[in-house]
Amino acid sequence: MSTEYISFLEHQGKYKGIRSWIFATDHKRIAFLYMYAIASFFLIGAILGLLMRIELISPGETIMKPQTYNGLFTVHGIIMIFMVVIPGLSAVFGNFFLPILIGAKDVAFPKLNLFSWWLFMLGSILAVASQLLKSGPPDTGWTFYAPYSTTTGTNVITATTAAFILGFSSILTGLNFIVTVHRMRAPGMKFFNMPLFPWAIYATAWIQLLATPVVGITLIMLIAERLFGIGFFNPDLGGDPVLFQHLFWIYSHPAVYIMILPAMGVITEIIPTFCQKKVYGYKAIAMSSLAIAGVGFLVWGHHMYTSGMSEQARWFFSLLTFLVAVPSAIKVFNWISTMYKGSIDMKPPFLFALFFIFLFMIGGLTGLILGSVATDIQVHDTSFIVAHFHYIIFGGMGFAFFAAIHYWLPKMYGKMYNFTRANIAAVALFIGFNLLYFPQFLIGIQGMPRRYFDYPPRFQWAQITSTIGGFILVSAVILMITNLIIGVRRGAKAPANPWNGTTLEWQIPSPPSLENFDEEPLVKENPYDYK
Amino acid sequence: MFANNSNFVQGVDTAFYLIFGVAIFFLVMLTTIMIVFVIKYNKKRHAHAVQIKDSSTLEIVWTTIPIILVLVMFYFGWEGFLPMRRAPKDAMQVKVIAKMWKWTFEYPGMKQSDTLMLPINRAVKMNLFSKDVIHGFSIPSFRVKEDVVPGKNNYTWFEPKIIGNYDLFCSAYCGLSHSYMLALVKIVSQEEFDKWLAGLPVKKAEDNNEGFKILEKNGCFSCHSTDGRKIVGPTFKGLYGSKHDVMTDGVTRNITADSIYIETSIMDPNKDVVVGYPSGVMKSYKGLIRDKDMPKVIDYFKTLK
Description:
The complex is a heterodimer. Chain A is mainly α. Chain A has one domain (24-507): Cytochrome C Oxidase, Chain A, CATH 1.20.210.10. Chain A is built from 16 helices and no strands. Chain A has helices at 19-22, 27-55, 66-85, 88-101, 110-132, 148-151, 156-183, 196-228, 241-275, 282-295, 311-339, 348-371, 373-379, 383-413, 419-445, 460-490. In chain A, helix 2 packs antiparallel against helix 4, helix 12 runs parallel beside helix 15 (419-445) and helix 15 (419-445) packs antiparallel against helix 16 (460-490). Chain A is globular. The two termini of chain B are 51 Å apart. Chain B contains 6 helices and 13 strands. Chain B has 3 domains: 9-46 and 54-85; 92-198, Cupredoxins -  blue copper proteins (Immunoglobulin-like); 206-303, Cytochrome Bc1 Complex, Chain D, domain 2, CATH 1.10.760. The longest helix of chain B has 32 residues, at 9-40. In chain B, helix 1 (9-40) runs antiparallel to helix 2 (56-81) and helix 4 (210-217) crosses helix 6 (294-303). By secondary structure, chain B is an alpha+beta fold. Chain B has a 5-stranded mixed sheet with strand order 3-2-1-5-8, with no helix packed on it. A 5-stranded mixed sheet of chain B has the order 4-10-9-6-7, covered by helices on one side. A 3-stranded antiparallel sheet of chain B has the order 12-11-13, with helices on one face. At the A-B interface, helix 3, helix 9, helix 10, helix 11 and helix 12 of A face helix 1, helix 2, strand 7 and strand 9 of B.
């Protein structure tokens, strides 16, 4: 350790005060900027979700009109997908830990990194503005399906422009991370010496770079159709509405992997640390990330089994969808095998990781129902889908985010939080989550359509259960965040390596200094080298 | 899971049972193993981790078994689905007309109904047409669902097997009253069906009105009713020639809804806004409804007494 260690939080750069943050090019400060923004959007999105749940507690009008409800689920979707889940792990923990884990001082293009954050904020402000401008919140669902989206009178153009700009932020972050992984690794660190979180971020970055432009073009086409009457999608103008769905899902299915691959990466870091054990099947996990990223590009049609696609297309997409499930299953086997004969320390990050595995398994296994054409026809566009993707996105990516923040917070702030409260929050989150989403599987199979303001009374038992779960879930989120804030403000000082981890971030002080490594990092052949 | 309501239930539910069986087996097995490991290898009982070498045999096994299982699931899912695309040639044809937010069913002989009445044990092919946006034709009890896409000739078919009443939902989100776009499916005996069909009136003349077609094509009826209901905007019923309070540049004035007023309201909707309705909701239809069509539209308004 060099003598003049100053943490990045205290380091004095060119600017002071707030400007030392919003003009920062340090990857760690940018990670904090993303984290605060994303946490705020997440809370807004969660409150919108809770309002929907209150509305659905009884059939008919409860607290709002149908138009308000339609706006709510659209806005909830746009905020959660484009502003929380897609950037989430990559922008926060990818930014903070990708350079550190590969022994770099920063990302390849620090200014571009800051520019990405500014684009993200610009897009987010536009997205929020689309709710407030006078024509009313967009009411198309986050999927913007044409021709409804090209004809409704609401603020669709503002919302799609927002999504377009957010997409650019994502592309630039992806580009930055790819170059970082290729060019910035510490001397001696080959690809197969990298920890598995960088592998996951690397695979994700390729999807961001290659898939996001497709949705950008699609949204531009939608805007052109609305503004100039160019008939891409509206059959009245000679367009094809199903074309929109293809273009949209060519991006938006790979986007699911943008969400879940970094989550898998986080879990793959946490499990070996708390088992004090080398990760089982390092190469299989690394390669399955790339396999998921690759095959994930070719399965988008499973969102469209009922759109009237040809039989050949339905056959092809169903087969590939089933095959893409296999690498995910392999990862689960590897995680559980890593626990075998470990020395398990049940700290909050590990508890969150266990909940992640359970919820992710339910999300993944119910995905098999959706890959199979016959059963998907029954549950397509029902609350079964809503439950399934919340298990993957919230139970998967969300719980991985919670696990990551509990794992890395001592490194990021140099402070420790209260374990008991963290564990209580984790258990409450798990209970609330399952109460909220599991009943939706059951009524989905019975045909409860999604995006329904009103519903037949026979589905009410499930809606009440879900709403109760929603309240527990939101309370647990508040408890968890409060505990973390108390930890950061008044918690005990965290040591450099509180969990006895082996990867590079635990070899440097907490919080890290401006350039992370004041000495050349010591690269090991196996990043999970427990003796 | 359900009674054998249609000819597809068995095939679809076989796939359901198979996949759920595999899924529950794996979920329970893996969760149990995980819990056992967490308890058994807790650091209180197991202070030192034992480092294990990767085993390629194990990895090949747990790659191969899932591949075989998913291929089996794929096969059953496909076999359950394929009959849905094989409508018998002699099936009864029903045209399903979807528009915001109403289902209409047209039987042979131009007879229309709001209820989908069908005879038991007879194959029926539903030809799906949308007049505006995408809707979803969904009867969960029969395991059928297909999107109703404007400009595309989608279809589905089935053979009802049990007499009774069933729900038909719109499954694809279609705007304001999506959750009210429902219809009743009634499965009855052949005799009862024949009697009912004979008494069904022939299609209304309204649908052939030129002005009506123009307004419908532009989606006007999504927000304006023709039966006096208030949806988003004012109703068209009795509009022509009536007196209204409107807001013009912040000033309230009373006008008579004549042809000039109606044309202004279509081309520049925010100029005169009827008191009690928000401004800025409707976009201009300049260029979308042509000037030469305007007299036809006005004539149609005159019919809405």
